[in-house]
Structures are given as C-alpha cells and as structure tokens.
Amino acid sequence: MNQINWGILGCGDVTEVKSGPAFKKVPNSTTEAVMRRDAEKAKDYANRHQISKWYASAEELISDENINAIYIATPPAFHKDYAIEALKAGKNVYIEKPVTLTVAECEEIIATEKLYQKKVTVAHYRRALPLFIKIKELIDEQAIGDIRIIDLKLYQKPGSTQIAQTAENWRINPALSGGGLFYDLAPHQLDILVHIFGTPNYINGFSKNQSQQNAVADITSGQLIFNKDIVFNGLWCFNSHPDNELEKCEMIGSKGKIVFSFFGHDLDLTINSETEHFSFKNTQHIQQNMIEKTVNYFLGKGENPCSLEDALLSLKIMENFGRDNTLVI
C-alpha cells in the first residue's frame, strides 16, 4: 500500500470544509467515493468536490475494492456498526468524535480492530493544531511549574453558533448523539486534557436538564484528579443568557498560569506576573494536520495520532459526567 484511497461515509456539513477537502490535499491520499443516504445530496457533494463516485448505501461504499480506508462522519449512533463493518471488509478507519455512543460500543470496535489486525484513528484533531502542541510543550517543560488546578468553563446560549448547525439538529437527539451538546463539544476538551495529563485517578460528575427545552441535559459539571494531585473542575452550560457566554480554560501552576480557549487561536502565558501572548493560525481545513498524520500511520510511516484506547478514556469521563447521578443526602 503506497496510497490511501478514501471512502467517506456521511458527507454532511462537517465534511464540507473542516475535513472533506483535506483528504485530497495531503500527500499519498485521495478520495475515491462518498456516501449519503440521500442520493441526490451524495451526487451533489461528489460533483462539487470533484469526486468520481458516490453511493447512497454504506454497504456498497465499504465493499468498493478501490477503497482501502473509510472515514466515518455520520452521527455517533452509526459509528460502531460502520466501523466494525469496515474493519471486517479489510479497511482501515478514521472515525469522528465522539467515537461511539457508549464505552461498551467503543470496546466492541477495539476488539474487532485487534481481531482483523487493521488500524483505527479517532478524529480528535485538536491534538494536531499548533495551539495545543504549544500548550503540551509548555506543560511538559514545566513552564508554569507544577500544575495545581485546571479550571474550564463553557457557557453558551441556546442555539449558539459554537455548535454546528444541521437541518435535523441530531445533536439534541440522544439516540443519535449520545448525550446532547455536551457530547458534541466536550470531547475536544477532554481529549486534550487526557492527551497532556494522562489517565485521571478520580472521576465524578453529573448532568441536569434545567430548561427542559429538549430531551437532553443542558448543564454538566465534572471533577477529575490527575497524577500529582492535579485538580480539574469543569462546568458546561448550554442554557446561559447571551450576556454570560464564556469559553475559557485556565491551567494554574506553582509559577504561573496558561489561559486559552479550546475553540480559539490564542493563549496567554503568565510567569512571575509577566504575561506573554501567543496567537496561532490553523489550516483552512482544520482537520488537515490530523488527516496527514492518519495517512502516514495507515501507510506505516508514523504512530497513531489518536487510538481507540485514547478515545475510550475521554469517553469514560463523558459517560460519567453525563449521568444524572447526584448524591441525595
């Protein structure tokens, strides 16, 4: 194998700019075909993106002999079955986040990956963005000393533009998304935390549906303790008043702090009361760096940039935080 020929399952909005075009722009990679259950939309996508083949059936795309890797960009409810089907067909898999609806589903894919000896990468693409590479470097070199506290706040108004908009709004359908808007945005944040700080020793959290506007929780609170007793506190609110919208993370150490937004481009590094500002620019297609690393991994030229085991860890945290499990005293 010297080139990855991709088949894209679910060529919806997320693939228009963020990911789809990048598969044809990284070295040794091209898009062979796309699939969407709506045949006219699949055909339109293929025509607009200069892709020669399109399908309205996932089974047909997966069985295409010219395809050796599958990108799964459907809502999470379909991830497990499509991933297992692709692995059984001898294809490597690049799968969107959250990797599955549940921990148990992810473990099923892991077992299948091992059984069929194929490769799976999860699209936690922020790992490959310059901002988070810099943050990891600062933490690893102890630029702010020993980390004491990580404080994360995300407050969004209902219908916020921070959340990707789709016609059917599947993100607030728990049968398709797994757990509402928290399940859409928190994977980006929690994956970076476990990528930098490793497996937490303590996990506890809960979710509530305060507004009762949808069938999913709209506020989530969670606590983690990482090695060296690093304490994390997170609060996600999706029913905030517009005046109170906020998205900020502070990593506080014994010598200073790092302040940044998971969905922004900047960070402030403060050491001994002196602050230095950094600003970073992403590629046009925000997943391109991650896709290039995935292609290299599939070709045997690099390590897995985000394994299923990596994704399983952040999913376990989400599953704990997503429960309505507050203690009654």
From TrEMBL:
Span of domain GFO/IDH/MocA-like oxidoreductase: 132-258
This protein's UniProt keywords: Oxidoreductase
Domain Gfo/Idh/MocA-like oxidoreductase N-terminal: 4-124
Organism of derivation: Pedobacter cryophilus
A single MF term (Gene Ontology): nucleotide binding
Keyword Flavoprotein found: no
Signal peptide: none
Stated name of the protein: Gfo/Idh/MocA family oxidoreductase
Keyword Repeat in record: no
Pfam families, per the entry: GFO_IDH_MocA, GFO_IDH_MocA_C3
Lineage: Bacteria, Pseudomonadati, Bacteroidota, Sphingobacteriia, Sphingobacteriales
